[in-house]
Design a protein that fits this description.
Number of helices of chain B: 21
Strand content of chain A: 15-25%
Largest sheet of chain A: 6 strands, mixed
Strand order of the largest sheet of chain B: 7-6-8-5-9
CATH class of the largest domain in chain B: Mainly Alpha
Strand order of the largest sheet of chain A: 6-7-8-3-9-10
Oligomer: heterodimer
Shape of chain A: globular
Distance between the termini of chain B: 34 Å
Helix content of chain A: 25-40%
Largest interface: A-B, 22 and 18 residues
Shape of chain B: elongated
Largest sheet of chain B: 5 strands, mixed
Number of domains of chain B: 3
Structural class of chain B: alpha/beta
CATH topology of the largest domain in chain B: MetI-like fold
CATH architecture of the largest domain in chain B: Orthogonal Bundle
Radius of gyration of chain A: 19 Å
Number of helices of chain A: 10
Chain lengths: 264, 519
Amino acid sequence: MPSFPLIAYSHVGKSFAGRGSSPVMAVDDVSLEVGQGEFLAVVGGSGSGKTTLLRLANRLIEADHGTITVEGEDVRGLDPVSLRRRIGYVFQSGALFPHIGVAGNIGLTPKLLGWTAAEIALRVNELLELVRLEPSYRDRLPHELSGGQRQRVGVARALAAKPHIVLMDEPFGALDPLTRDALRDDYRALHDRLALTTVMITHDMAEALLLADRIAVMQAGRLKALGTPAELSQSGDTYVANLLRTPRREAERLNALLPRDGAA
Amino acid sequence: MSLFSDARWGEALTHLSDYLGNHVRVSVTALALGLVVSLPLAIAARDRPLFRSVLLGVASVVQTVPGLALLALFYPLLLALASVTLAWFGIGFSAFGFLPAVLALALYSMLPVLRNTITGLNGVDGALTEAAKGVGMTPRQSLFTVELPLALPVIMAGIRTSAVWVIGTATLSTPIGQTSLGNYIFAGLQTQNWVFVLFGCLAAAVLALAVDQLLALIENGLRNRSRVRAALGGFGIVALIAATLVPNLARPSSSYIVGAKTFTEQYVLSALIAERLRAGGLSASSREGLGSNVIFDALAANDVDVYVDYSGTLWVNQFHHRETPPREQLLGELKTTLEKQNITLLGELGFENAYALVMPKKRAQALGIHSIADLASHAASLSIAGDYEFFSRPEWAAIKSAYGLAFRMQQTMQPDFMYAAVASGEADVIAGYTSDGLIAKYDLAVLADPSQAIPPYDAIVLLSPRRAHDEALQAALKPLLGRINIEDMRAANLRASGNDAAASPDAVARWLWDRIAKR
């Protein structure tokens, strides 16, 4: 495991006002380190606290307890706005601004950081190439793009200001399988090529297993397990075992149903 | 004569640049003020539920106040404020016309802008505001680059609603002294000049539609990122404002302002006075359709230079006297009281416009009734009709007690219908006005008042404090004093109630001048 942790959670807790009188613990005493260059997937059911955990890192949500450091600095001591500008964030189904063109959406964070127009234009071209979009898409509005193209723009927007860290909130969930597959591979390649540190939320265990270096399993606000796919398969926890069983059985049944034609 | 070849369309057109210009100025200023106040308030209130409910509640309450009442309320409010600032800081301002109209209309414009801005901003997809935060926007950057642009269609819909409301309601600013397209409507309704009423309504509707479409163009341009369309719309609005400023700058500011209340006789008399001033080489402009409570204060504040009032009205309404001295004594005391306010009572025109009990001549003769005293023995079997205020006025109490009158029934009516009602027998007696032209038209008899229970209502010419020593003005008006008798005025009022071009106040004023000048 890489030595220097880029994001470190230490005994972090966060509760929200629940329906009744008692608050709901969304994140409960979680300690976790994400090493430099690592791709970490956070897996869990809805309400498991995975989104809260992600948003604590760039202070979209403030922690109640514990300490979070980003690149060695306690986030409480940092200005939240400039913290967010140096961390890329890919939202569910893109969340592109519908009234702003592709180039404008991609160039937002650089613009906020005060880059010149020429620098931004150059960077936008670079990014379009990086996420494999034709330069002609520059001036399109988000509604003129397909779901996959929108999410490519979402990734480009997250990478625009050359962050070291990218946070992704179920980025490929709403896409059709073919697009999802292509985008996953493309992103993983970018992660490696740009030496990024990525934390990705997903509810899809198969996706986590295929993409991530390590997987964190969340349940009811607590960190249930953390490790590489191989390490997780050794886990004695029934919840983790259940999560792993589905992709494994699917893979076995698919192999049986789809015999490879000759060549392989 | 066909409706479209009527000469009054041409007459209406001659006022258009003045009325339309003033209308645009007052509406645009009010709308701008309303926006400047409402937009920041809406932005501040959108995520504060308590503040939001209070704000929208207050704006809704304002909206339930009828437009005319809201405008009328601002006048005394500002008048009081002006006297306070004058006393404390030595700075007074005119509470007449433009200022109260702008403030009341601005207040009136707020609800749609507030509600739509709050709704629009709160309707922005939460995922997008979250994304704005996520890419590193400050709350302010998020507001201006994401939330406001996305809420724009809803906000603009509110602004457009409010623009149409303000332009429509601005027609009601005429009675508080702000010239507007309402001048056509008020004058037209009073003098039965339907061409004017129609013209005023059409002009206001066209203006409202034009502004609405220009705003739509701006919205469309902003939404589709078309600078050309947005600029065209903006240019249209600016051009509209600029066009209305030109005639205003060109107009001499030194002209005499002649006031008129909201009834036919007043329109005729102000036209007559304005014509006499012009004949004397003075420039004159009219402020017509002023509320009875507004016009006297406007004169005292030098916002109006000359108008005709009635001695009894001032005596009872303005100075709150209960007892009625004889005619000469009342006039003398009134003159002294007015002088204390530096207002000049130049003189009487020669006729009275008093309340009077009126019934058909034939019926009166058949019953042997010549005076109110004769009426008393028949009253128990008769009905009486009066205007909206008559039965609550001190005159009515005085008449009842002086003659011991007790009618079978009393009812209130719109003054225009009263005369027809008594002529057709629907009412037996009406409380009419002595100078009304309809008295001659319907062959009615005015019953004498031997006990002098009704105070005298001599038509008197009043001059503002700043014109107290203006000899040119006084010389121009002197030929009118004591020259108009009750028959002249009734005949003039009857002509003015007609429904053709010869019935316009200017035409009737010329006719009246010809008639009295010959004597």
